[in-house]
Amino acid sequence: MKTNDVILQTGTKVVFFIIFLFSIHIFFAGHFAPGGGFVGGLLTTAAIVLLLLAFDLKTVQKALPFNFMIVVAIGLLLALGTAAGSIIFNVPFFTHAFGDFYLPLFGESALHTAMIFDAGVYLVVVGSTITMIQTIGGDS
Amino acid sequence: MINLLLLPIILPFFFAIILLFFKEKIQIQRALTLIGLVISFIASVVLMSVVKDNGVQSLTLGSWPAPFGITMVSDMVSVLLVTTSIVITFFIVMYSFISIGKERERFYYYPSVLFLLTGVNGAFTTGDIFNMFVFFEVLLMASYVLIVLGGEKKQLRESIKYILVNVISSALFVATIALLYSVIGTVNMADISVKITEIGQPGIITVIAVLFLLVFGIKGALFPLYFWLPGSYAAPPMPVLALFGALLTKVGIYAITRTYTLFFIHDLSVTHELLYVLSILTILAGCIGALAYFDLKHIMIYNIVIAVGVILFGVALMNESGMTGAMFYLIHDMIIKGALFLLIGIIIAITGTSNLRQMGGLMKTHAPLGWMYLIAAFGLAGIPPLSGFTGKLLIVKGAFEAGHVWGSIIILASSLIVLLSVIRIFIYAFWGEPVELKTTNRRAYRKMIIPATVLVVLSIVYGVGSEWFVPYMSDASKVLLNPSLYIDAVLKE
Amino acid sequence: MEFVMSIIIGILFMAAVYLILSRSLLRIILGTGLLSHGAHLLILTMGGLGGTSPPVLAEGVTDYADPLPQALILTAIVISFGVTAFILVLFYRTYAEHQTDNMNLMKGNDEHD
Question: Which residue among A73, A94, A95 sits closest to B20, beta carbon to beta carbon?
């Protein structure tokens, strides 16, 4: 079945990036305000699902040629690695480190190892949700 | 090395993640799984010696002070269970190399097994009731994957029921924790115990105790909540069934034991009396099931139910002998169930059926298998000096001390029925006229029998050398019977 | 407020039980979703709905909401999200394999396979 969805496809090309950028914003906002890896990941998934609706599975796979199980694995490794870093320093598991640093371009910024953990969560959420959707959508 | 008690949880998790990168390379997956399990085993043995020398170990994640952060606690009970789980998983994984099939291996079988082990070890180690829920979910997710893996028609049908039952019990678990939190205002297990002692267990706490029994009873297959178990466990292939039979119900038993010895100890006449009655009924129901079926898998699955009853009977007694016996029997049951399921798997692989009526005469062609099976069967029934004996003896002794004469008679009678049910398998499968066997691969058979044999030998060592394990078991029962040991270790500051 | 919430939770549980007891797979999934929603709201309510400010460290705030139920509920939501996604995939596969979504037709035991 080939339907003519020019408006949806053209709109998606723009809206996808808006949603994606917003999800990145939400992800970083999680540092001090509501947001974070889980919500950010879901928003990114929503953007990809929009792509899937507008185009078909094959096109999207060509555009995003990742194996999403690998994305999940990388995310889990990041999360576990952050938590396990404390083993090396012999402090209780999951102890985070943080501080204020001067970064070029950004100026004074607060950095926190929880961010890396959150990045892991982000990747896990994106990877697992897309895998689920691909599995269901794959047979039809 | 203050993070030592976490290593048996983190290491399988780490290796499971690494395995996700090697989806198509089965040889690498196998090797990494074995390496991961060996390292985890070493960590858990070291941990056991530390616990033996220095008492209960505890660690609060993220450097939070104790009642606020998530606490992980390793006492003798949990470290014994963790070590046994890793050993059994190791042999089941070895067995899977031959029997599970390439298709399943490629579809994340080994990572799922390791995730399952992560969840099981985490549930044994955690000292936070909500964190226990999280680890339950980890192991359940892994078990969902394992039970559907392969996607046969029957598997899909049965796994729906399995998943539905577990989703409902998880929702009940959350609801129960919510109710407990509203009364007590904490989720740290040691802190809960202190607070319940302070307010002296009013009626609402007893209601929550019964709710906990309901939740864990579904996971642990307690009467009348075991209804889902026989159908679901019969669906997946043998190594998965062995893993589930040896580990999953034990997590439920552990959770009941922990909550009923740490939290709800001020109104024994209601809570523990209930547990006592339910465990007896579980034994009876299991006995009926074990005798009723002519299917190898079902007979053994109902034997799981009987064992659940026996262990919880020992726990419900709340005295020294009963608790030590329950611990002895718990470890014994994990080993022997692993061994028996693997042996039965070999029988099914050789004959190509799980129906007893279509077998016979295996003794002529597969004599070593027969002898192994016979030893394991005697061990399960508790014939001295094999491994089931010590545990059952202590449980019965505890029952007489507590004045539950009828209960101990039922336990003893159930041993006979267990013996009858497993010997029936022996008689039908190994004696009689040999039936036509399809030509089997002798090499595969030999490779399959090695892990099963090692597990049987382990159970013999465990039975004959009970004396060596007594100090460990009595340490375990001491922690269970004196909550103050546990509480002091967690809230030491 | 707690009173209203308890009634809502009751309704959610009731609807969930009704849906789970029905025959269609899709309704059962919806039922499990409602059931976990009910359980999550129960956590939130049981922690007490008091407190006017968010549980974030700030100057001069004493009347803040209890942060623990919120942390617990978030964990529980993530877990139930994962489980629901998994169940959806599984039920879809089952439907494709069995050509039916009627639980009545999925009875059976080994002897009659």
Answer: A73
Residue C90 to residue B178, Cβ atoms within 8 A? no
Give residue limits of the domains in chain A. Answer: 6-138
At position A137, the amino acid (one-letter code) is: G
C15 inside domain = yes
pLDDT per residue over C55-112, tens digit each? 766 677 777 778 888 888 888 998 998 898 888 888 888 888 878 777 777 776 544 4
Q: B387: closest CA among B476, B308, B465?
A: B465
Please check the confidence at residue B5 and state whether its pLDDT lies above 50.
yes
- So what's the ipTM on this one? 0.92
CB-based contact (8 Å) between C75 and chain B? yes
**Are B265 and B393 spatial neighbours (Cβ–Cβ below 8 Å)?**
no
Of the candidates A38, A129, A139, the beta carbon closest to that of C85 is on A129
pLDDT tens-place string over residues B229-286: 888 888 888 899 999 988 988 999 999 999 999 888 888 888 888 999 999 999 999 9
Identity (one letter) of the amino acid at A17?
F
- CB of B328 within 8 A of CB of B78? no
User: Is the confidence at residue B192, as pLDDT, over 60?
Assistant: yes
Which residue segment(s) compose the domain that B280 sits in? 4-490
Higher pLDDT among residues C34 and B157, named by residue: C34
Closest chain A residue to the Cα of C84, Cα to Cα: A132
CB contact under 8 A, A91 and B63: yes
Number of structural domains chain B divides into:
1
In a domain? residue C94: yes
- Which of A80, A93, A92, A85 shows the shortest CA–CA distance to A120? A80
Report, as an integer, the average pLDDT of A28-41. Answer: 84
Of the two residues B439 and A73, the one the predictor is more confident about is: A73
Cα pseudo-dihedral C2, C5, C6, C11, rounded to 10: 170
Residue C35 lies in a domain: yes
Contact list, A139 vs chain C (CB under 8 Å): 96
Strand ranges in B306-410 using DSSP code E only, listed in sequence order? none
pLDDT of A133 reads 84
| Torsion sign, CA atoms B382, B388, B394, B396 | negative
Q: How far is A75 from chain C (nearest CA, A)?
A: 16
**CATH number of C33's domain:** 1.10.287.3510
Taking residue B390's Cβ as centre, other Cβ atoms within 10 Å add up to 24
Task: Please report the residues numbered 107 through 136 in chain A whose beta carbons come closer than 8 angstroms to any beta carbon of chain C.
Answer: 128-129, 132, 135-136
**Measured distance CA(B289)–CA(B284) in Å, rounded:** 9
Contact B168 C32 (CB under 8 A): yes
| Token couple for B415 | 């041993």
Q: What is the total count of domains within chain C? A: 1
- A6 Cα to chain C: minimum distance (Å): 31
Mean pLDDT of all residues in chain B? 88
Please write down the HEC assignment for all residues of A12-71: HHHHHHHHHHHHHHHHHHCCCCCCCHHHHHHHHHHHHHHHHHHCCHHHHHHHCCCCHHHH
Rounded to the nearest angstrom, the minimum Cα separation between C103 and chain A is 20
- The pTM assigned to this predicted structure is 0.92
Query: What residue spans of B403-441 are helical by DSSP H?
Result: 405-430
Q: What's the CA gap between B336 and B455, in Å, rounded? A: 7
Q: Is residue C111 part of a domain?
A: no
Q: Residue C45 is part of which domain span?
A: 2-50+64-103
Scanning every residue of chain A, which has its alpha carbon at the shortest distance from the alpha carbon of C57? A32
In this complex, which of C69, C82, C98 lies closest to B157 when CB atoms are compared?
C98
B444/B182 Cα distance (integer angstroms): 57
Contact A72 B14 (CB under 8 A): no
Task: Find chain A residues with C-beta within 8 A of B8's C-beta.
Answer: none
CA distance A22 to A48: 13
